[in-house]
UniProtKB/TrEMBL annotation:
PANTHER family: CONIDIAL PIGMENT BIOSYNTHESIS PROTEIN AYG1 (AFU_ORTHOLOGUE AFUA_2G17550), DIENELACTONE HYDROLASE DOMAIN-CONTAINING PROTEIN-RELATED. Belongs to the AB hydrolase superfamily. It comes from the Bacteria. Keywords: Hydrolase. This is Alpha/beta fold hydrolase. The keyword Hydrolase applies. Coiled coil: none annotated. InterPro entries: AB_hydrolase_fold, FrsA-like, FrsA_esterase.
Length: 403
């Protein structure tokens, strides 16, 4: 689905931002006007225009709150948070030294935190014990949260390669709350604020991340311990499946979307001989070839530069090799809880991955494909949140006896 831009990466990211309008994370007119002012593939203009929009909404939110207009303030601050995230997306040249990237990320977190306090049931900010530190999270509570005698089903949700903690509200929590689910959303190692503030990079044994989060969820009086759902988005679909293979306190798992082997994805975007050079460690020839690819493709450049940051790699070939341990070999067959595997018809990079996951599972399972004809065929159903939530939560309702 082309959305305003010919550049594939720009088109998808603009659609992603616009799609969050379903839960007050964007306004379509704002998105279209902003995109109109960005030349195709111009990353500096992308940063400039989305930043200007975010700062304008930030100011509107501040003014509305000062005047006592809580709903207007909440709505403006939610959009500002999403637009700050969008502005920062392509700033991957050297994130550790990029003070403006840090500022944008901080503004995205702060505007969302202020908006979350203005929800009808205010969200609770969490610091989840993890090894010798903590992981950031939010507990988004459905109506009736104050009645501890009425524990509600709870979705434990994490993102993937690039999503932020705050964006998880627009992705899943907004739809869950309408249906009477709590959502405990969190970031783990390698993900946004954990990488920025603690320097922790991704780890393939994700069960050691999810386990402490489940431990924490079970201490909450609002949470029904018999109706815990693990939900992973994008790369998180692989991580969640890996965690579910070893974490057996789950009533269900949602893989949004299913990915079996993360290393396979970037290899599909480069010539086979280049993939062989990377695997063989021939970085003297692989490095310059990847540099050429990064010049020619916004998507390749972003994936490799971001990968260097989230995996702690020093070069693009190292970033590619860092993907190699992330697969479901020996894990998929160990998942025991009912599992829903989602797929998207237009997801060319991940083509076949969800079906591969589904076929490897031995638990009760279901496979759901979202199509282009229904407007839901893009990766992770971006731009079709309501249709995606309808099908996914209806499946959960039936598994958890809520229907």
């Amino acid at each position: 689905m082309k959305f305003h831009f010919d550049d594939v990466a720009f088109s998808f990211q603009a659609l992603r931002t616009a799609g969050h309008a379903a839960y007050a994370g964007a306004d379509l007119g704002e998105v279209l006007v902003t995109c109109r002012n960005i030349p195709d593939g111009d990353e500096q203009a992308w940063y400039r225009e989305w930043t200007a929009l975010a700062e304008r909404l930030h100011h509107i939110g501040d003014e509305a709150l000062a005047a006592g207009h809580r709903v207007s303030a909440r709505e403006a601050l939610l959009r500002a948070s999403n637009y700050y995230r969008t502005a920062d997306f392509f700033r991957v040249e050297n994130r550790d030294a990029d003070t403006e990237s840090d500022r944008l990320a901080r503004c995205s977190r702060q505007t969302f935190a202020r908006a979350a306090e203005l929800f009808d049931v205010p969200a609770l900010r969490l610091e989840i014990p993890y090894e010798d530190t903590t992981l950031p999270g939010y507990l988004f509570r459905a109506d009736g949260a104050g009645d501890t005698a009425r524990r509600l089903p709870t979705v434990i949700h994490h993102g993937g390669y690039d999503s932020t903690l705050e964006e998880l509200y627009f992705m899943v929590a907004g739809g869950a709350l309408r249906r009477g689910y709590h959502v405990l959303a969190f970031e783990g190692p390698g993900q946004q604020s954990v990488r920025r503030e603690q320097g922790l990079v991704f780890r393939p044994d994700w069960e050691h991340v999810v386990g402490p989060v489940v431990d924490h969820a079970l201490t909450r009086p609002e949470v029904d311990p018999d109706r815990l759902v693990l939900w992973g988005t994008s790369f998180g679909g692989l991580l969640a499946a890996r965690a579910a293979a070893f974490e057996h306190r789950l009533a269900a798992c949602v893989l949004h979307n299913g990915i079996y082997d993360f290393y396979e994805l970037p290899l599909r975007a480069i010539p086979p001989h280049l993939g062989e050079w990377v695997a063989e460690g021939r970085d003297d020839v692989a490095g310059p070839a990847l540099d050429v690819g990064m010049v020619q493709s916004t998507r390749v450049r972003w994936f490799l530069r971001h990968g260097m940051w989230v995996f702690g790699a020093k070069t693009p070939p190292e970033a590619l090799r860092a993907c190699a341990p992330y697969n479901l070999d020996g894990a998929a067959e160990r998942v025991t809880c009912p599992t829903l595997v989602l797929d998207a018809e237009n997801d060319v990079i991940c083509h076949g991955e969800a079906r591969r996951v589904h076929d490897a599972l031995r638990c009760p399972k279901e496979f759901t494909v979202f199509t282009d004809a229904e407007g839901a065929g893009e990766h992770c159903q971006e731009g079709a949140a309501l249709r995606f939530h309808q099908r996914t939560f209806d499946w959960l309702d039936e598994r958890l006896s809520l229907a």
